Fold these 3 entries.
Entry 1:
Amino acid sequence: MLEGGTKVISGSIAFSPDGATLVSASADRFGGTRGTVMLWDIESGKDLATLHGHTERIPDVAFSPDGTAIASALRDGTVKLWNVKTGENIHTYRGGGYSVAFSSDAKTLAAAGWRDIKLWEVATRKNISTIPIRGERINDLAFSPDSQVLAWGTGDQVKLRKHATKSLFGFMGRNTITLKGHTDEVQSVAFSPDGKVLASSVRAGTVKLWDTETGANITTLEGGGGPVMFSPDGRILASRGNVQEIKLWDLETQTDIMTLRGKAGAVFDLAFSPDGAILVSGEGFGTIKFWDVATGENIDILEGHTGIVFSVAFSPDGKTLASGSQDGTVLLWDLKRAADR
């Protein structure tokens, strides 16, 4: 068990690309306004470093794909960049505050705030683009696997923006397009592993699939919402259904293949195992459930938290699961040992 003193897990958790380190975002107390970023050694479970300097709550943290840096978003409208080896605050960017994402080539950092999205070149720390946002705040943003497209949800719309001027949208050569069709606030966006499809979901009700080349709405999947995630092979999409349900869709046939029903509480986060065989859900009342993707069977329940499980994440090798909870702890689970119980 990884305990951050009296800290409460307030944002995301993420493994380093090599699976050796975990980063977590915490608040000083439930509903607290001061945040802390902590680094953990997976093998020993020890606290490697506490990254100080945050005067506000931290909604999001992200590892760079090369594993050398961490970005943390603060509610005060700044983003901090940290050196993983030394714990040094390399730079503080002005802008953002709600969500951060690195491009897959680790060259660009994007951050969403109330009024705009800012993009910085990581090597030079220069602002390379500022995208004004009018109206609703941004709940989620994501880069495509090839780093060429940035997607985000704002209000009831989804937007796609291309960075490469040689490959723009449509014959008019636009670099940004707006995808319309949702009737509620967009909560989550995710690219398929091949980057050809974008999924967007609202709090409850629908998930939409979009063609990332044309912006066309491929289909609307009824009954989904909340967190949305593609399986590693891109064949299955998972999202929350009703409060205590998880929906799985076959993307080739665009049909609902099963509904996973639990009794413990609402679903707050989802994660596929690296081989795509298992789906894990972080739920209310401190429970973590393991689902067989092929059969829909609930094959295991892990109990150890005493509060809502906000975040779940598999290590890259699939041997360890990390879970972050409202109770102020991050738990690391040895999945082989759990399976042998």
Entry 2:
Amino acid sequence: MHHAWLLQGEAGIGKATVAFAMARHILGAGQDGQAVARQIAGGGHPGLLHLARPPVERGTGFRTQITVDEIRRLTHFFQTTAGLGWRIAIIDPADDMNRSAANALLKMLEEPPARSLFLITNHRPGRILPTIRSRCRVLRFAELTPDEIARQLAEDVPDSTQDARQAAAASAGGSLRTALQHLMSGGLEVSETTRRLVAMPAPDWTAIMALGDAVTLKGREAAYTLMAQAAFRAVADEAQALAMAGDLVRAERLAAFWQAEDARWREAEAFNLDRKQVLLTFFNGLAEARADSAAFH
């Protein structure tokens, strides 16, 4: 088996679920499968290390990045489990690694320990080093269809209405997790408002300020994340539509804007910058990108 697998696809479509299922299958071979599954579910299996953003030292929540210190835990993990069979590391997701962490992981992938397996999830291909990607077998996950999501929502949230499930599924971008957030936390209104504001030819600053106020309140972190996802997806959809229509100049300008904003939002999260200002800068930059494209034409 190849030592490193990159599981790529939208957030919330089951990549981590598959990674843990693979770990249960491999670590449970020749063992009591149920006992192994319980160990993995409880985070206590000696042959599995799950790396994600660590919790903050004080208060609740998680840090904004997977740091190099987290990746260095892999060295200790592989050293102390050398007498076991397969040792599996799940990095979930690689998108959250900072540059130092990514470089440290790359060194391990270049010289992997014996009987080691790296299962790496990745939401956006542009957020992972090409050198890491080149050392992995890539398993791409297709987006779930609205019908597939709606059927699963009927099982997960049986007291919801069919109309609500269909609306949540249609706006989820192929992600079951996003659909659940839309259905259960008022996220659908946030996403629809965001997409409507992005679609406007000129910024409606009053509505944008109101959206910023709503999603940056304490305890509204999930709403802020949904807003960001909806904004970036709306820009990506617009760029794709322009490219399909043959308007490559405007498509390229929007794609460049998307990439620059993606990097800026990640930096803002890493340094805990003012989220409302980040949102305002996003819409201002979008207006400028569209104006530049129009002027070029």
Entry 3:
Amino acid sequence: MIPGLSNLNFRRHGYVPLLCIIVLTLLLIIALFPEQIAPYAQNKRFLPYMDPDNAHLLGTDDMGYDILTLLVYATRISLTIGFFAGGLSLLIGTATGILSGYLRGWVDDMIMGITDITLIIPKIPAIILIAAYVRPGIWILILVLGLLSWETTARVVRAKTMQISNAGFIMSARCLGFPSRSIIIQEIIPVIYPVILPK
């Protein structure tokens, strides 16, 4: 193999994931230990609209709170929302995609119809509209984001499931009388999980 090409492949596929892991690790540390990292207590106030200086690296907001402190404490909230909303959308998208691709027929038509409707719903206006009628909170935001963000995963999983549903090992399992649940859990999911993980 050409040395330059090998080095190029490493730079393309090695540095970026490593950088992502480092950044994510730093964010996790900030989220887990905000009291030790933030320069001030979360409820400590100063003069409003202070310019950035050595005491306040990002200045203060209109209420007098240190902006860097607010960002440090907000990291935990952002990661919590992203983790649980992503997990919920991944769970819904995987389940619906497998059912749609494996059962096909009217089940596939119904699920894909719901997927198309979900796909065209504008996310931000929907969140604002729901927040106007429901008491806002982290878990409400997680629920809304999870319920409105699964359609892409469902389409990818459905395509992969349809691709392998006619494979020899799947047909053999059907001929041997294995129930659909066992085929999905033991045969299909282990094959499609490399497609699910990047989501």
